[in-house]
Structure formats: C-alpha cells, structure tokens
C-alpha cells in the first residue's frame, strides 16, 4: 500500500518528522524513494528547475501529467503528490475535478496540492468529497508571484499572521489531508502546526513543522548558482556532473575514449569474407 494519509497522521501524532522532496523524473524518484522520503512532490517548480522558465506560471496541466507519470512509474512506497498548476484551481468546479482527476487516473498520483486559502476552499471541499486527497499550500505561494510583488516572506505582520492562522484552519476544515507552509516565520509555523491535526510540512518555515520539503535540485546542488536562503545544500551533484562531462569531452577530443574494451568487432570469418587478407583500411 505504501505511504498513505494515515501513515502521515500517525507520524505527526508520534512526533516523527516527515521528509518530502520534489521529484520530476524516473531516476530521481527511484533514488528519493530508496533514500526514505515519505512524500515525493511533482512540484510545478519543475517549470523553473527542469524546463527553464522564470516562474511557475507557464507550467501546464500536460507538463504536470508528463512528469507525474514518470515519477509514479518509479515509486512503490512513497506518496506522490502533484501540484495543480497556475489557474487550474480557479476554473469552474467541473474543470478542477477533471484536472485533478487526470493527475490521479492518468498520472497515478496519490493526490494533488493546491496553492491558496480562502479563494480555493470550496474547490478543496469538492475534490475531497470526490475522493481526491488534497494538500493545501499557504504562505509564499509562487503561482501568485506577480500579485505578491516577488518571492517575499509572508506572515511578518500581525494582520497577516492572524489571516494565515485562520486560513490554515479553514484549509483543514475544507478537508485537506496536509498543508505546505512556505517562507513564513518559525513562530507562526509552529502555532499553525500545533493548531492543526493534519500534518504541516514546511519549506523556509523553521524547525517545528511536522516535516520539511525542499526542491531536489536545490538540496543536491544541481541547480544554478541561485537558491532561496532557506535551502541547505547536502551534496554537490552539479559539480560532479560537470567534472564527469569535462573528462568525457576531453577523452573524446584526445582519443582516449573509446578504447578496445568499448569496441564491437566483426567475427574473424566475416572479416575474412569481406576483406580477405586486405584489411578494411582502418585497422
Ligand atoms: N529551485 C527552486 N527552489 C524553490 O524552492 C522554488 C523554486 N525553484 N521555484 C518555485 C518556488 C519559488 N520559491 C522561492 C523563490 C524565491 C524565494 C526567495 O527569494 N526568498 C527570499 C526571501 C525574500 C524576502 O526577504 O522576503 C530568500 O532569501 O529566501 C523563495 C522561494 C520556492 N520554489
Ligand atoms: C516548493 C514546493 C512546496 C512546491 O510547491 C514546488 O516544488 O512546486
Ligand atoms: Mg509548487
């Protein structure tokens, strides 16, 4: 059966932290599952991290479906959650159901994640009632980057702290099975985590949430030079890749690759029939 919402609820109640990480393709999903991550997020961050867009806004449902399929082909245990991309949750109810339904039926996702509070509460309820597990996402919601005026920490002043706390409760009441909190002060994240019975997963939300999520390429050091300040680099995979590729390029150029061990030969009798004693001119 793998990881379910019940697994996560149990971990919250027992104080065991939940590890969530993004995955966008087959090999990365396999490795992340083997490493023990309970939740793999096919984040719409894939638009920035693997498709080269400057924000998550251009990402389409088809993009999400394509990557979700690759990730679920690799997983047996981990829970796979797919982001609903820009605008999708704000379309008429029928459209939202179809989009989320596609990610589950075709993409084989466990459930979907939806950015926002108040404006999407009815959609969270509708999807939940239809049997689609929904994870909420509050705080810095990157799909609203233009409206927010940039990737800016949320919940710094009293009114927004109060609003985020009440929206988090409303998201839970609407039926969400979990909540991602992005880029908010630790104190607010702690209060929300204590106030909700569903697991709260933080990114740039401090130490006291029920779990953490990071973008895979950020934590492995295989993105660009830039990453948000809440990121810790646990490896330098980008450097390792560059190093390997530089060796490959230089061995091609100086003819040290390929060598005899990488070569396919004709059988002797075929060679004899073709070229006789004359050789073929190269060897
Ligand atoms: N590689 C990558 N990592 C991410 O975590 C990520 C993406 N891409 N793309 C989608 C969203 C965008 N995210 C972002 C992007 C920028 C900041 C950022 O610049 N934050 C500032 C805080 C700014 C302030 O002072 O308010 C920081 O220094 O962390 C944070 C989250 C998180 N997501
Ligand atoms: C950063 C996480 C929470 C996300 O939504 C994404 O990767 O798209
Ligand atoms: Mg996202």
UniProtKB/TrEMBL annotation:
GO terms for cellular component: cytoplasm. The keyword Transmembrane helix does not apply. It holds the Pfam family Pantoate_transf. Its EC number is 2.1.2.11. 3-methyl-2-oxobutanoate binds at residues 44-45, 83, 113. One of its GO terms (molecular function) is magnesium ion binding. Pathway: Cofactor biosynthesis; (R)-pantothenate biosynthesis; (R)-pantoate from 3-methyl-2-oxobutanoate: step 1/2. It is found in: Cytoplasm. It catalyses: (6R)-5,10-methylene-5,6,7,8-tetrahydrofolate + 3-methyl-2-oxobutanoate + H2O = 2-dehydropantoate + (6S)-5,6,7,8-tetrahydrofolate. Mg(2+) binds at residues 44, 83, 115. Its main location: cytoplasm. The active site is at 182 (proton acceptor). Binds 1 Mg(2+) ion per subunit. NCBIfam families: panB, PRK00311.1. Belongs to the PanB family. Catalyzes the reversible reaction in which hydroxymethyl group from 5,10-methylenetetrahydrofolate is transferred onto alpha-ketoisovalerate to form ketopantoate. HAMAP family: PanB. This is 3-methyl-2-oxobutanoate hydroxymethyltransferase. The lineage of its organism: Bacteria, Bacillati, Bacillota, Bacilli, Bacillales.
